[in-house]
Structures are given as C-alpha cells and as structure tokens.
Amino acid sequence: MDVDTFAWLLTDPGQQVLERATEAYVDADADPVRAAAAVRRLEPDPDRASAALTQVQLRARAVAKFGDDAVRMYFTPEALEQATRPRVAAHRAARLVAAEAGTVLDLGCGIGGDLVAFARAGLTAAGVDLDPVRVAVARANLAALGLGGAVQVADATTLAVDGFGAVFADPARRGARGRVFDAEGWTPPWPFVTDLLRGRAVVKVAPGIPHDLVPDGVEAEWVSERGEVKEAALWSPTLATTAHRATVIASGGLASVTTEDDPYAGRPRPVRGIGEFLYEPDGAVIRAGLVTAVAAGVDGGLLDEKIAYVTSDASYRTPFATSYRVLEELPFREKPLRAALRERGVGSLTIKKRGVDIVPEELRKRLALRGDQTATLVLTRVAGQGTALLVQPF
Predict the structure, then answer these.
(1) N or C end of the chain: smaller count of CB under 10 Å?
(2) What single string gives the DSSP state of each residue in 259-281?
(3) Each residue of 309-318: pLDDT tens digit?
(4) Model pTM?
(5) CA distance 188 to 194
(6) CATH superfamily of 80-241
(7) What are the domain boundaries of the chain?
(8) pLDDT of 138 strictly over 70
(9) Considering Cα of 196, then 239, then 235, then 139, what sign does the dihedral take?
(10) pLDDT of 326-361, one tens digit each?
C-alpha cells in the first residue's frame, strides 16, 4: 500500500469500500479469497480493493492487541507486529506524566500506538517517522480515535529535541535479514540512543539487552503483560528512579519491584532446601535480575544459586511469581519417573523446567501417559542434582 492508495482509503468512496470489505469478510467466514471477489465487484482497481481488504484482515488480527480500538484504526503488517501493546504504552505514558514531562516527541512513531497512549494520558505528543505510509497511518489513527497530536516525515537523527519535556524512541531492530541483535545495527544505532539518554528520554529496547550495555545512571525496566515479557525500556538519569525495575501487568492491575526491594543486591544469593512451596518468578523479574527480591518477599531462598526458582515454607500470593504447593519429590530418571506418574494415574502433564537439558515436548511423548489425572511436574536442579517435583498451582 502506497501513500496515495491509503489517502484514497480515507475518502468517502474509500470508506464505503472498506465497509463493504468488512461485510464481505464476515460473510465469507474470514476467507480472503471469497471476500476479495465481493470487494472487486464494488471496486475494480486491484490496489484499492486489496488495500481495503488488507485493512479488514489487519483489524481482525489487531483486536488481540488493541481491543475495541482496532476496528477504527489502520495498520500495516510489519507495524502492527512491532507496535507496543496499549497497556504497556499506557504505563510508560503514566510514568512520563508523573515526571511532569508535559510534551513528548516520539522518534520513529510507526503507526502511532505510543502516540495514542501519550495523548490519552494528557501529554502533548508529536511523532516522526521515515516511512511516509506509517506517518499517514499514525495521523489517521489519532484522528480516528479523536486524539490530538502532530505527525510528520522526518529523520529522527537530524532533529533538535531540546524543546520537548521528554523524548521517546523505539529503534528498529529488524533488517532485511530479520531481527538485529547487535545494538550497533539498530536504526537509529546505539550511539544515537546513548546520546538521547543524556537528556530526558526513554528508549524501548529488546528484552534481551545485556545489563552491561546499559549506561551508568540509566534505569532499565523490563515489562511483562500476562506472563509474557514484552519489552525493556531505558530511562535516562533525569527520569530514572532506580537501577533495575520489573513491571508486571496482569488482568488485575500493575505491580513493580525494583533494586531497592532486593535486600540481597550485591550480596551472596540465599540458597536453601526444598520447602513446602515453590515460586516461579515472572520473566520480567528474571530479566531484571530481581529473583532474590522475590525470594525475600516470600521469606524464602533459591533452589540453586544459578536457577530462577524460589522455595519457601510460607504460602504467598505474589504478582511477581507463579505459586505452587510442592506435593512430593519424584524420581528424576525417566524410567522410574514414568512408573511413578502412571502409578498416580497421570495422563495430562504440564512440564516446567529450568537448568536441565530436557525438551518437555519430547519427554512428554516418551512418557506416553494415559491416566485420568492432570499434574504439573517441575524438572530442575537442587544442590547441583537433577530433581523432579510434583507441584500444584494455587
């Protein structure tokens, strides 16, 4: 889709075709071939008909990420995949509001997902992007949702950003050959990011960013939503409030744990034997290196110094970990493990593992269980030894 085709899509005739494409897609049970035939009867131009039907398909995909907003928004395939989830973007916007940023410039705004969050939080937002289509889409999304904000085509590396209360950047981490893991290969590259972080800036980066790459004084925040780590964000020293932060967003709300919550920071990690309860820290907590903060919060310790499982004799519900009751220890070797599970009538088995060279899907097939009971099995190391624990989530 080019800029001219997208501009047509926003006209009254384009909106009529888009509405018809939506109806045809529903009538065809989401079969794009059958829907395309119906759309072409109304709009013979193949590019315009394809653009309308593509938007319908993208909107259907976007509902999982953008909810009810998706049916009013516009997307491109790559930008939809890369766009920040709304609750994650809203959290970032709220932090900027708390920091009294007032205005924010989004460098590389894509289709405007973060601009929407900034505007809804009450910030005066502007965005730039090198891609004219994405700029047009971002502008249309703000208008479709009734939000203010300015968007234009520009090279982020050439702009003076001093006039804004804060700057947000999301460097592109994909190239012609796929995902780019080396920060020097991002667009804009890592030196540009470090320059931004000398001012009032927050930069979205990959969750796998090495801790030693984070500049001194910069806060690194890892964010998960519903148990899945979505991103890391680097907050410049003028916006930082800690060194490392893990933020967990769930259906019930949001919670954060920071370096200041970890009494073991800079000290030996607490290791102990298996207790009555096992805690599996959230991925954001693990990425942030705050597993021992979770251990302290549940009056427990680690099963192994290098493995992110926490155990305790106390029962806690914590937003930062999945909680299990330890039912019993089973044999770790495969043959006696199979016999023990069959003896207990287990047919459906969830396998969790850390620190052991086992592929759960392959092990499950080899166990060939056929009972009526369901169970959860944790395979890990305790004091350096392979251990199998039958546990029950609570």
Answers:
(1) C
(2) GGG-TTTTSPPPB----SEEEEE
(3) 999 999 999 9
(4) 0.91
(5) 11
(6) Vaccinia Virus protein VP39 (3.40.50.150)
(7) 3-71, 80-241, 261-322, 328-393
(8) yes
(9) negative
(10) 999 999 999 999 999 999 999 999 999 999 999 999
